[in-house]
Amino acid sequence: MKLYYSPGACSLSPHIVLLEAGLKGTLVKVDTKTHKTEDGGDYYAVNPKGYVPLLELDDGDRLSEGPAIVQYLADRSPASKLAPPAGTMERYHLQEWLNFITAELHKQFSPLFQSTTPAEYKETLKEKIGQRFGWVEQQLKGKDYLMGSTFTVADAYLFTMLTWTKHVGIDLARWPLLTAYQARVAARPKVREAMIAEGLIKQSDRVTARA
Hints:
The chain is an alpha+beta fold. The chain is 46% helix and 8% strand. The chain folds into 2 domains: 2-80, 3-Layer(aba) Sandwich (Glutaredoxin); 89-197, Glutathione S-transferase Yfyf (Class Pi), Chain A, domain 2 (Up-down Bundle), CATH 1.20.1050. It has 8 helices and 5 strands; from the N terminus they run E-H-E-E-E-E-H-H-H-H-H-H-H. Helix 1 (12-20) links the parallel strand 1 and strand 2 (26-31). Helix 1 packs antiparallel against helix 5 (153-163) and helix 1 (12-20) crosses helix 8. The protein is globular and about 45 Å long. The termini are far apart.
C-alpha cells in the first residue's frame, strides 16, 4: 500500500490509523501547492482531485477520501478494534462521528487556511467551530475517547482537527475536556510515531496525557 500525504494535513488521520492497525505501507509525500510528489511526479496523475489523502492498494485500486480510507484500514485489522464490526449499531455511530467531523469541523477549517478568505468570515467560521467543539466536549464527559474507552478511527480524525487550532488562532484551552483529550491521544505511541515521521514534533518532545 501507498499512502499519499502532506505533513500536518488531514492525511495525518489515515497515517495514524495505518500505524495503529499495524499495517505496512509506504508514505509518499505530496506538496499540495505544486501538486508534485517528493520525486517530482505529477500528483494529479495519481489523484485528479489534487488533494490528500489517497491510499493506493497493491492491486492498483485507490481510495481518496479520508473517512473511507480509515474504515478500510480498520477493516484490514479487526483485532485493532479501530472500528466496530460492519452492520452493528456501534459501526453506524462511528460513521456518524466521521460524518460530523468531516462536515461540521473539517470543512469549516479549510477556508481559515486560505489567504483570500475575508477576515470577517474567518471569525464567523471560528465561532461555528467553537460551538461544535462545545458540543463535542459534552459528548466526551466520562469518556477517554469518542466511542468510550476504545480508540477508533474517529479519534484519529478529530485529533487531526485539534492540531489545526493553533495555526488558525483558536484557543483550545476554552474546552478543558478537549484539551485533555488532545493530550491523551497525542501520548499514544503510534500517534507520536506518525507526528515524528511527518516532522510535526521531534523525537525528544515530551507529551503528557491529562485525565
